[in-house]
Fold this protein.
Amino acid sequence: MSSDYDYSDDEDAFYDDDEDMISTGSAPSDDDMDMEFADDFKVPQHSPRKAYEIEHESLSQQAVEKLSAADVDHISSIFGVDDSTASLLLRHMNWNKERLIEKYMDNASSVSVAAGVSTPSRASPSVTGPAPIRSSGSRRRTTRQTPVPKAEPWVCPICFDDSQTSFLSLSCDHSFCAGCWTAYITSKIREEGEHAIRCMAEGCALVASDSFIVSTLAKYGEDGDGRTQERFQELLVRHFVGANPHLKYCPYPSCTYTVSCPSASSRSSLTTMVPTVSCGANHKFCFGCSVDSDHRPVICSVAKMWLKKCRDDSETANWIKSNTKECSKCQSTIEKNGGCNHMTCKKCKYEFCWVCMGPWSEHGTAWYSCNRYDEKAGVDARDAQSRSRASLERYLHYYNRWANHEQSAKLSVEMYNKTEKKMEEMQITSSLTWIEVQFMKRAVEEAERCRATLKWTYAMAFYLDKGNEKELFEDNQR
Amino acid sequence: MTSISSRRLRKELSEIQTEGCPTGITLLNADNFETWYFSIEILGESLYQGEVFKLMFRFDSSYPISAPAVQFVVNQESTAPVHPHVYSNGHICASILGTEWSPVLSVSAVCVTLQSMLASCKSKERPVDNDRYVRYAPDNPKKTRFHYDDDTV
């Protein structure tokens, strides 16, 4: 049960810990929560997942590291290479294990060279074995921190310092002093956010292994607090998460949780569901898009379409509606900014009367006043116009309601603050405890959630086809 | 300026002073460890015969881990060479000054590379987007993300 424990129920937030202990095993029987919900907030709601909820799991950075380590283990056991090499190969292939295995089996040396694991010249003999290990001696690239004894005083080609005693190199044998390596690695990680750090030599494509980076930083790193290493781990995790379609970083600032949502990993799945998920810190967001944190009931693409329409249309539409009419022949929008009622459409040259919208030919000599009473042509013309007006009006109907909710959502922050004050007051004036007044906060949160859903139902209704289902929908909406 | 960059520059400078610059390149000014000037000319057969250009190197504390800012000096006395990779404000689009920079490279290595870039030029023309780039170019060419698309020139 603990693996698909559902964090999305915000109500659980305060009881996470004990609930886990209480409900293990007995949880599935707890499906009458809807009734308990209203009258007793303390009952842990451990219901089976509701139909609209999406199975997802929040992962901490460590958990993601574990996941990637499992992939690395898998590859290293298949290829018979060490973990660092396997990690480099996987990163090169964007963590696509299947493709890596296929390509590696096909041509191990070219993959190793492309991944920066081995150098082209000596790639062929060594890649069948553990690629990065030098065949000539006991010095493995990953462990070559030890000062390499040199007969003549060795000058680091980067800092030109001949007093340096410790030199490091990857398996390409381009050695540089430890200080330069550290400065280089630190700058690559900290300034450029780069996890694939190439050898410093010109034109050398070898990439430093994780263990080389970690041990170099640990031994010679100057910052002492391990922040560079931390950042490096974070970069690796980010790369892993970015390469996995079923993983997503929580978009909230400085949140380190990752959410795994396998069922929403493909684009096509987003047409049938709204993957509203929340991370371990209770940040709610949509796994499929960045439009809104919770845009149920409309799917991501519709929500996006709606927002786009709103941005394009709403203000302009309002103005157009109040200031223009449409040519009853070609429907182009016309603003009358002076002159008599005899209008000639600039686009289709249709001549009509601004007052009745009927053709001018029927007006005879009554240039300045329209005295005709609804003759057929005039009615038709107004009909066509009103149809297009109606579509605009229909849109504005939904838009205004949607925008109202959007606006109130912004105002509800204030409401939230007020509630907190009220809660404090209640504790003082009545005998209620802190836990017992939590219901107010919950009520506000629930109201906010309802508002968000209600808001998006207007976008949904706008795009629904006319019919019984839509009527039902709008009845429910009321 | 941290010790590593000034130590490195001191070494490079003393090497230049004792062994001299590569042919066609002369050190004009290296009074500090922030900005150096060189003159550069292309010897032998080339489109730039008889022309002398002035190069400016700007170093920050991260040199040689990150590349120096290198550009041709454009003022009353000198201009930038007309070359498909050199903008009229003196900025140079060369991969070794950006993504392909390696800490092993040095000031004289950059000079030699630029020399050969000019020497192998087959037609004197400005980059296609010269006007647009120059209008919005940052003062420091390192702030530009060049797109290195042509390895032949």
